[in-house]
Amino acid sequence: MDTPRSAGEPEAAQDGLFGLEDVLGEPEASRPAGPLFRDSEEARRMLSVRRIHAEPAAAASPRGRQIVARYPEAELVPTDSHWRIPELHGNQGNAERWVRIKSTVLVLGEKKTLTVRPNGRSADWIAPGAANGCAMACAYCYVPRRKGYANPITVFTNIDALIHRLRRHVTAQGPKKEPNQCDPSSWVYDIGENNDCAVDALISENTADLVRAFTRWPTAKASFATKFVNPDLLLLDPRGRTRLRFSLMPADDSRLLDIRTSPVQQRIDAAADFVEAGYEVHFNFSPVVIRPGWEQAWAQLLQNMDDVLPRSVKDQAAAEVIMLTHNRDLHDVNMAWHPSAEDAIWRPELQQAKRSENGSWNVRYRNAVKAEAVETVRRLVHTYTPWLPIRYAF
Ligand code: SF4
User: Which pTM does this prediction carry?
Assistant: First the structure.
């Protein structure tokens, strides 16, 4: 369990077994020579920062200063709290400006609550995120719900405190005694619950620091799902301690729903490079969208994976399958800017609604529809990619 540090804890558990000194903030000079992807035109199309809203302490921190220096042209706007920036986080009036805000605005804040939460699906634990928000704009994304729908990336600059927290948690767990579907021998920590770590790596060293930290913790493994191919991550040295989960869906669905992401084929084609660089590469089949012809589209996707992925990827891969969940408020927002997406993902005749803890209505496929669809995906995977174990499906 995630126990807070207490006076009675043994010293090794309080201070961890592995040093932090050479984990944080790799000097830029130690990077390999040559142009970085993050300075490319393609990266600038994803993120071209013109304004940075920053909590004063975050802007003054070492990580904050690095980020501000990276965008010398950007206007720096002080803010009391990364949670309260009405012009960014409100819904009304922002739908049309949504993508422009995501691609031009950054927020810097300090993460106050460093909680490690149990999970049991994608990972054993959900780590406190080093960022929230995203520069991409998937039509089904649940990430914006807490900060309103414009929701640009907030980078948390107190990465040292976050890694200290993780180190204490990893140390307190000790070795994993029983294999489970998350991993046979390592505790898996999801480091990207509300963000995409591959995009975040365009902005700061937070992702690199986390990847590096997990190389020091032999009982633990980092994990994050991504829809963005960032070749700069290949320059890190994860030594098998970071699991990257490429999110995949049929290309036609992706073109409609995965706004601003890397093309699906690019994600598949990148898998071998990431394995070679020392990542574990899994696949996140998510969300599975039921629409006319969806079974054939998934069969084609899986057949393509079987055709193009080399043995090096197949031998270590696993997948998770997650059926679409949607949300009434998000549906209303999408109708203002991307109604054709809603034709695919708002299917009341197949879906049921359930009120969430925050009072909004979440929508998911009816139980029988979902159960049948999950079985269909399992059958397709068994048929077309028999080398691909499914870790979980729901
Ligand atoms: S990439 Fe992930 S976090 Fe970003 S918009 Fe898409 S679903 Fe949301």
Answer: 0.91
Q: In this predicted model, what pLDDT tens digit does every residue of 341-389 receive, in sequence order?
A: 999 999 999 999 998 877 788 999 999 999 999 999 999 999 999 999 9
Residue position matching structure tokens 């393609």:
42
Task: For residue 242, give the DSSP letter.
Answer: E
Beta carbon of 227 within 6 Å of any ligand 1 atom: yes
Contact 183, 124 (CB under 8 A): yes
Q: Which CATH class is domain 11-393?
A: alpha beta
Rounded-to-integer distance, Cα 130 and Cα 111, Å: 8
146: number of CA atoms within 13 Å, CB side? 12
CA nearest 248: which of 212, 213, 300, 193? 300
How many CA atoms does the CB half-sphere of 137 hold within 13 Å?
24
| Confidence label for 335 from pLDDT (cuts 50, 70 and 90) | confident
Other Cβ atoms closer than 10 A to 184: 9
Q: How far is the CA of 149 from the centre of ligand 1 (A)?
A: 12
**143 in ligand 1 pocket by Cβ < 6 Å?**
yes
The rounded Å distance from CA 139 to ligand 1 centre is: 9
Convert the pLDDT of each residue in 262-318 to its tens digit: 999 999 999 999 999 999 999 999 999 999 999 999 999 999 999 999 999 999 999
Q: What is the spatial distance between Cα 334 and Cα 384, in angstroms, rounded to a whole number?
A: 34
Instruction: Please name every residue paired with 362 in a beta bridge, in sequence order, or none if there are none.
Output: 327, 354
Site to probe by mutation for ligand 1, drawn from 142, 199, 227, 334 as the one with most ligand atoms within 8 Å of Cβ, is 227
Provide Rg for the chain, Cα atoms: 21
Distance CA 343, CA 97 (A): 22
pLDDT-based confidence at residue 12 (cuts at 50, 70, 90)? very low
Q: How far is CA 231 from the centre of its chain?
A: 16
Q: So where are the chain's domains?
A: 11-393
> What's the CA-to-centroid distance between 13 and ligand 1, angstroms?
35
- Is 122 within 8 Å of 320 (Cβ atoms)? yes
